Amino acid sequence: MSITKLIAMALAILVSTFFALAHPVVAADRTVKIAAWGAKSGPLRSFGVNSEAVLKGAVKSINDSGGVKLGDGTMAKMEFTYYDSACNADQAISVARKVESQTGALIGIGPTCSGAAAAMYGIFQKKVGDKSDTGLQFPILTDTAIRPGLAKKSQWTFRNVPNEITMYDALFKWLRSKYPNAKTIYGGTETDQAHSRITFAAVIVQKAKKYGFEWVGGGIEGVTGKIIAGMKNVLNVSKSSNWLLADTNFSVQARAFKRSGADMMIISSHPFTTCGMLKEMRRQRIKPKVLVGLTSSSSAETLKGCSAAAEGIYIPTGFAPITKAAAKVAAAAEANGGAADLHSAAAWENAHIIKQVVEATGVMAKPETLKADRRKVRDGLEKLVKVDGLMGEIGRVQDEGESIKPYVFVQAQKGAWKVVHDPR
Amino acid sequence: MSDFLLEFVEVTQTIGDGLFFGTTYALIGIGFSLIFGAMRKLNMTYAAAALAGAYVGLAAFTFVNAPAPVVFLISALASGLIGGAVYITCFRFIPIHNHLAALMASIGALFFIDEIVVHTTDGSPLTFPAMFEYVMFELGPYGIRGDLLFVLAVNIVSTIGLLYVLYRTRLGLATRAVSQQDVAAQLCGIDVHRTNAVTFVLAGLLGGIAGSMTASAVGVLSPLITVPLTVKGLIIAVIGGLGSIPGAIAAGLLVGGMENAFLYFRGVNERDMYVLLLLFIFLVFRPDGLFGSTVDRD
C-alpha cells in the first residue's frame, strides 16, 4: 500500500469519526426507562391492553425520531415495561413499590383504574422534601383513571386524564341550547363503581341542574354548590334506578326510568351495564328526548356490546380521531392490538410529555443519578403549564397535578361515535 | 288507576320479572346440586364453564353468523365438553374423600377458565343473540318480555329433559345409585368414574343452556358476571338444599323474585344484603335447605 493510500485511508477514518462525533451519540447503555402498569387481567383487561398498545406506538415513534436527548447531549432510547395490576389496589401498590425499588425506571405510568389509583397514590410522599414522610419518591403520570380530583393526594402523582367537571359543564350548557324544551332529568348509576357513582352524583346531575334541568319529582333541591350534600341527595332519590357493575337484570331500573317520563335520561356506568340498561330501555320502549352517558362508555366496547340500543347517546370525550395526530395514534393502537379512546390515548401524550420533561430538565439516565433524575422529572412535570396533546393544547393545573384537556361531544350514530360538537 | 292499584301493579310486575330471571338462576343452581348430589362435592367452576360455553356459542355467531338456536346449542355442547374436562382435571384423580383438594382445584379452574375468556375477549362486553329480543306482550297494565318467555320455556324443557334422564334412563339410575352409595353402586357393576364424568357433562350441558339464556336475557356477555353467577348458584343450591333439583328450582325463583322486590323497596345497595341474610337464615335455621335430605348417603 502506498503512502498516499495510507494517508487517504487515515483521513477517511478521521473524517468519518468527526462526523460520527458531530452527531449526538445514541447511548446503548443509557435508556429512559418507563414502568407502566394497568389491568392486563380481570374483567377490565381492555384498559391495560389499550393503554399498552398506545404506549408501545408512542415509544416507537419517539425512538424512530432519534430518541430522547439527555442532559449531556447524548441521545437515549426510551423503553417501557408493562406490568399487570389487574385493576386491583393491592396489586397496583405492590407494582409501584417494586418498580420504585427494584427497577431503574425513571417514572411510572399507571395503574389505569381510578379505584386502584386512589389507593396507590396514598403510598407516595405527600409533600416533596418532607423528611418525616417515608412515602415513595417516584413520579407517576397516570392515564385512564378518570375519577375527579385524585392526583392532589401526593406531589409525586400527576395525571393526564380528561376533566369530567369541565366536560359535563360544557355538555349541559350545550344541551340546554340544543334542546330548549327538555326540562326534566332522571337517571341511574352503578353504585359499586366509585367513578360512575361520584361522577353521576357529584358532577353529571349537579351540572344538569345548574343549567336548568330538574330531577323528576324534585328531591334534590339545594344541590348546586353543596357537592357532598348534593351527592347524598342524588343517590337517595335514585336508589331504585341504580344498579351494580355485574348486574344482569335491569327491569326494575328501566321501569323507574319509564315512570319518570323524563325528557333527559342519564346512564352513568361502564360499557357492560350501560349496554344491559340500554337494551332493557329499548325493550320497554323508553325513548327520551336526550340520552347522556358516562365518559367511560364513549369507547369501542359500548359499540361492540350494543350499538343499536346506544343510538343517539351523547357523551363528552377527550379523544376522537379527528386530528391528524389523533388519527395516527388510533392507527398505531390498532396495529398494536388495542384501541385508542379517551382513556388510552393519554398514554401517547404521556410518553411525549416525559420526553419533553427529560429534555428540559437535563436528566442523565445513569444508575448513580436515578434518584436525582426522578426528582428532576417530578419537578419538571409540576412546572409544566401547557403541553401539546392529540386534540390540541393541554393545560396543566400545577398544584393539583391534573390536566385540562380539549374535548368534544360525541354521539352514537349507526354503530360509530360521531363528533357532534367541537368546542375546541 | 288509583295510586294503590298502580303500586300493586308495579310490585307484582317487579316480582314477576324477578321470577322470570329466577329461572336462569335455577338452572345454575340445578347444576351445582346435580354434581353435589352425585359426588358430594362442590364444583366451583360450574358458572365459569357455563359462560365459557356461551362464549364458544358466541364465536359461532360472530364468525359464521350462526342463528340464535344454533348458538344456544353450541353453547350447551361446549359447556358440556368443558364440564367433562373439569371432571378429569379437578375431580377424577383426587381421592374421593379429599373434599378440600377438589374444592380448591375447582376454584383454581374457575379463575383459569375466566382468565382464558378475559384474555380472548379483552374483557369487552359482546352482543349476545336473543330470540324475540324486543317482543313485549302487553297484558293490561303488565308487560312480559318475549325473550324471557322463551328463556322460561327453554329452562322448563331443559329441566324436564334432565329429570327424564335422571328418572327414566339407565344412566339416570346409575347416577342416582352413585349419589346414594358409590361403593354399593360399584359392587352392582356401575362404573363410578364414568357415571361421574357423564354427570359432569350433563350438568355442563345444562350450564351451557343457563349461560346462553342468561346472556341472551341481558343481551350482552361479559366475564364480569362469572363470579356473581357462581355466588348466586351457590346461594340457590344451599337455599334449595344441596343435591335437591326441585329445591334448586324453587330457590332460583325465590331468589330472583326477592332480589327484584328488595331492589324496588330498598334500593340496589341493600338488595344483596337481604339475599345474603336469607342465606344466613337458612344456614342457621334450616341448613338442609328447602328440600334437602337430612339423610347422609353413608
Can you put this structure into words, describing what you see?
The complex is a heterodimer of chains A (424) and B (298). By secondary structure, chain A is α/β, with parallel strands linked by helices. Chain A has helices at 3-22, 45-64, 89-102, 114-120, 164-178, 194-210, 227-237, 251-260, 271-283, 300-306, 324-335, 345-361, 370-383, and strands at residues 26-38, 68-69, 75-84, 107-109, 140-142, 157-159, 184-189, 214-215, 264-268, 290-293, 314-317, 386-388, 393-397, 402-404, 408-413, 416-421. Chain A folds into two domains: 26-162 and 322-404, 3-Layer(aba) Sandwich (Rossmann fold); 164-317, Rossmann fold (3-Layer(aba) Sandwich), CATH 3.40.50. Chain A has 13 helices and 16 strands. A four-stranded mixed sheet of chain A has the order 2-3-1-4, with helices on both faces. The N and C termini of chain A lie far apart (70 Å). Residues 20-26 of chain A have low confidence and may be disordered. By secondary structure, chain B is mainly alpha-helical. Chain B has one domain (2-285): Orthogonal Bundle (ABC transporter involved in vitamin B12 uptake, BtuC), CATH 1.10.3470. Helices cover 76% and strands 4% of the residues of chain B. In chain B, strand 2 (136-139) and strand 3 (142-145) form a beta hairpin. Chain B starts with a helix and ends in a 13-residue tail after the last helix. Classes of the chains: A alpha/beta (424), B mainly alpha (298). The interface between A and B is large, with 41 and 42 residues.
